[in-house]
UniProtKB/TrEMBL annotation, chain A:
Its main location: membrane. Belongs to the binding-protein-dependent transport system permease family. The chain crosses the membrane at residues 12-37, 71-95, 107-128, 140-162, 183-205, 241-262. The lineage of its organism: Bacteria, Bacillati, Actinomycetota, Actinomycetes, Mycobacteriales. InterPro entries: MetI-like, MetI-like_sf. PANTHER family: ABC TRANSPORTER PERMEASE PROTEIN MG189-RELATED, ABC TRANSPORTER PERMEASE PROTEIN MG189-RELATED-RELATED. Residues 72-262 form the ABC transmembrane type-1 domain. This is Carbohydrate ABC transporter permease.
Automatic annotation (TrEMBL), chain B:
Pfam families: BPD_transp_1. The keyword Transmembrane applies. It is a multi-pass membrane protein. The keyword Transit peptide does not apply. SUPFAM superfamilies: MetI-like (SSF161098). InterPro entries: ABC_transporter_permease, MetI-like, MetI-like_sf. Belongs to the binding-protein-dependent transport system permease family. Keywords: Cell membrane, Membrane, Transmembrane, Transmembrane helix, Transport. It comes from the Bacteria. CDD domains: TM_PBP2 (cd06261). This is Sugar ABC transporter permease. It comes from Nocardia tengchongensis.
């Protein structure tokens, strides 16, 4: 009886702490969304914590008209292109490393692994110089090209998975006359759906949010992505916080929605990313 | 035709397939990773202002960066940020995880809420927090009913930046601890309970020691990520006021693109890589020695 009571008390404490923490976690996002639907007049006149009255979508309309709509489209297109390219090319490379033999395979694999240790800031300046030399700065190619051809991390992750596919299944398909391409498309990919979903989530999140490279490679208005546009808001709107919060809400909301829909997949992908 | 000849043909064919599958990624890794790495090393030995002629200057960039007080200051700022962020996010993440790990109603919703900041672009989050910290019209001063210059005073700016990074990472760290705690076999905890390990004692003498690999992992990756921090700092302070939040990634960026000294920035990039390499190797060795516990 006594232990039951103690357990109940402990649960109450645990939930109180957890819920308070959760409120603190979510408060900044809720506050910014709330500010995004306030009229500038209400924002100037009342406390930042006041609830919107009346609620308005004018702020969203304004920022979308002033170039942010284009940034949303560019970011979405970039994310889709990179994610598709990375998945296809990483699958091919991972299969080559896992299931074929060729001279130099293991050395190349170690080279790929080694590049995973290099922080992206290291390659920033040389990449900028390369793209400047080719005259490709401020183009869509500058955003997409460096990440289109697969990533060592994705290749490593998929290779581990492909190694676990039983060889008999692949041999059986080969005996039936399937080519390597057939095997990849109709045997390996369907069997790897969970890891591919996880990889998709990781790639979409990191590309949608990527900032450092787009900032140096495509800072012009034409191919500006959402993160770069967001970083420029302060100078553009000079403390017109209702507009700035509308813009940040637009930058954050799509991924939050994605997260809520695919939360199982996303939470797993966090655990997987951590296993680098 | 003998068997060896046939085998060689099959091997050749397999090798051809392997190379073909690998080729696209090889182009990517070659052009956008290996070549830039080579260029960064080459660049570190040359002087250039992004426009004029490129001159070979040997170790000059190295000497000037390694004795540059500004760069030394950036390293100290980065270390200070690490000292503020990593212990706090690890401790808070552990507390949240210890509470989240017990299965109960609402667990999924809570985990989603805590992981939410991880999904958000650090830049957008930085801009939101810039408003929260704004002296006038900002949420924090509205709550406190005072007028504090959070981001524009040199003493408060770094703790403010640290707060934002901790806020972004706590839920993410907690998820690793939840996974670690759930991986502990129930028999161990039950046996511990019989010996009187309940409540805090259970955490201190059973869970914490068993979580050492997770703990180490979270600490090391935390240090690695703070060493690369750029987005949030750029959005919040751009390194200011008065270089008080000028972390190494920010310094490298301004050296390359504001001061137009790509050669010096290249040296900084190599230094950052060296630090991260040492941390990664230490992590690897630690893990090799004590990954498995004998349950």
């Amino acid at each position: 009886m006594n232990t039951d009571k103690r357990a109940a008390a402990r649960a109450v404490v645990a939930y109180t702490v957890l819920i308070l923490g959760a409120l603190l976690t979510i408060a900044p996002l809720v506050l910014s969304a709330m500010t995004a639907i306030k009229t500038p007049k209400q924002f100037a006149g009342e406390s930042a914590l006041a609830t919107p009255d009346p609620a308005t979508v004018d702020n969203f309309r304004t920022v979308l008209d002033q170039g942010l709509g284009r940034a949303v489209a560019v970011t979405a297109l970039m994310t889709v292109c990179i994610t598709c390219g990375q998945l296809v090319i990483s699958i091919m490379a991972a299969y080559a490393f896992a299931r074929t033999r060729f001279p130099g395979r293991d050395v190349l694999f170690w080279v790929y692994l080694g590049t995973m240790m290099v922080p992206s800031a290291v390659t920033l300046v040389p990449m900028y110089l390369m793209f400047a030399k080719l005259g490709w700065l401020n183009t869509f190619w500058a955003l997409v090209l460096p990440f289109l051809f697969g990533s060592p991390y994705a290749i490593f992750l998929l290779r581990q998975y492909f190694l676990a596919i039983p060889g008999e299944i692949i041999d059986a398909a080969r005996v039936d006359g399937a080519t390597t391409l057939d095997i990849l498309i109709s045997v390996v990919v369907p069997m790897s759906r969970p890891i591919l979903a996880t990889l998709t989530v990781i790639t979409v999140v990191s590309q949608w949010n990527s900032f450092m490279w787009p900032l140096v490679a495509a800072s012009g208005a034409k191919w500006q992505v959402l993160t770069v546009a967001t970083a420029n808001l302060q100078t553009q709107y000079n403390a017109q916080w209702t507009l700035i919060m509308a813009a940040t809400t637009l930058a954050i909301a799509p991924l939050v929605l994605l997260f809520v829909v695919f939360q199982r997949q996303v939470l797993r992908s966090i655990a997987v990313t951590g296993l680098k | 035709m003998d068997r060896t000849a046939r085998r060689t043909t099959a091997e050749h064919r397999q090798a051809a397939v392997g190379y073909t599958l690998l080729l696209p990624s090889l182009i990517g890794v070659g052009c956008f990773l290996l070549l830039p790495i080579a260029v960064v090393l080459w660049l570190s030995l040359h002087s250039w202002n992004l426009l004029g002629p490129i001159r070979f200057t040997g170790w000059d960039n190295w000497r000037s960066v390694l004795t540059d007080r500004q760069f030394g200051h950036s390293i100290l700022v980065t270390l200070a940020l690490t000292a503020l962020v990593v212990p706090a996010q690890t401790a808070l993440g552990f507390v949240v995880a210890a509470l989240l790990a017990r299965r109960g109603p609402g667990g999924t919703v809570l985990r989603v809420v805590y992981a939410l900041p991880w999904m958000c672009a650090p830049v957008a989050v930085g801009v939101v927090w810039q408003w929260i910290f704004a002296p006038t019209g900002g949420a924090l001063n509205a709550v406190l009913g005072r007028r504090v210059e959070w981001l524009s005073s040199p003493a408060l700016a770094l703790p403010a930046v640290a707060t934002v990074i901790i806020w972004m990472n706590v839920g993410y760290v907690a998820l690793f601890f939840v996974a670690g705690i759930r991986a502990i076999p129930a028999e161990i905890l039950d046996a511990g309970a019989l010996d009187g390990a309940v409540g805090w004692r259970r955490v201190r003498w059973l869970i914490l020691p068993l979580l050492r690999p997770t703990m180490f992992f979270v600490l090391v990756t935390g240090v690695l990520s703070v060493f690369q921090t750029f987005d949030a700092v750029y959005a919040l302070t751009k390194g200011g006021p008065g270089h008080s939040t000028d972390v190494v990634a920010m310094r490298m960026y301004s050296e390359a693109f504001d001061a137009a000294h790509p050669g010096r920035a290249a040296v900084m990039a190599v230094v950052v890589f060296a630090v991260m390499f040492v941390i990664t190797v230490a992590q690897h060795r630690y893990f090799r020695n004590r990954t498995s516990y004998e349950y």
